[in-house]
Every structure is written in structure tokens, then in C-alpha cells.
Design goal:
This protein has 122 residues and is an all-alpha fold. It has one domain. The protein contains five helices and no strands. The chain starts with a helix and ends in an 8-residue tail after the last helix. The model has no long low-confidence stretch (mean pLDDT 76).
Length: 122
């Protein structure tokens, strides 16, 4: 099921990405039919249109559709509201009567150096 959904999403993404190439490919495959039946300038053979007017029309429609999709994406609004809270921080009184000793006046203890850790014997 997961693979099917992934394949469908990938296919839809690729379809949207390569839509202009699909239009052009469809035009090339059906160019004879388009030139004979769907061409706007078929009554004017001196223009040598060969259905390119129809291709330009379809590409313009695809570009307009993409532009509409872009506009729809930019008009999305985030309607999620979030309540804001104000924080009041309580003042902490400073300890003033604390006696500080500079590090150079503290006498080092060697008891920790003498007690080296020995792992237990097996």
C-alpha cells in the first residue's frame, strides 16, 4: 500500500513537472492531424504554420494554469491562532555575606592522588 501511494505521488509530481514536455510530445505525435483539422491558420497556407499556432495556444494555456496555481499557493492563509503568554520572572535576592577565598590561597590536598583506583581482581 505504501509503495502504491509513493508511486502515485511521484507520478503526479513528475506529471506536473513535465507537462510542457508532454504537450510538445503530443503535438509532435499528432502534428499531421493538428495541421489538417485543429490549426487556426489552415486557411492561410502561405504562413507554413503546420499546427504551431495550436501548439503555442496550448503552451500558453498551460503557462496560465501554472500561474493560477502559483497564485493560489501564495494566497493560502495560516488560520492557526496561538495564545501568547507573558512571563514574569521573580527577582532572586543576591547572597552578599558569602566569604570568597581566592584559588591561590586554597591548599591542595594530595589524598585523592594517593588513592589510585585499582580494579578488582578476578
Amino acid at each position: 500500500m505504501r509503495k502504491i501511494v509513493t508511486a502515485l505521488l511521484l507520478f503526479s509530481l513528475l506529471l506536473q513537472t513535465f507537462s510542457r514536455a508532454g504537450i510538445y510530445l503530443s503535438f509532435k505525435v499528432n502534428q499531421d492531424y493538428i495541421a489538417r483539422v485543429l490549426c487556426i491558420n489552415k486557411a492561410k497556407p502561405q504562413l507554413n504554420c503546420n499546427g504551431k499556432c495550436y501548439l503555442a495556444k496550448k503552451l500558453k494555456q498551460a503557462a496560465e494554469q501554472e500561474q493560477k496555481q502559483v497564485l493560489l499557493k501564495t494566497l493560502e492563509l495560516n488560520l492557526c491562532c496561538q495564545e501568547l503568554h507573558a512571563f514574569n520572572f521573580a527577582r532572586i535576592p543576591l547572597i552578599v555575606n558569602r566569604k570568597l577565598v581566592p584559588f591561590y590561597l586554597v591548599k591542595p590536598t594530595f589524598s585523592t592522588l594517593l588513592n589510585i583506583f585499582h580494579p578488582p581482581r578476578i
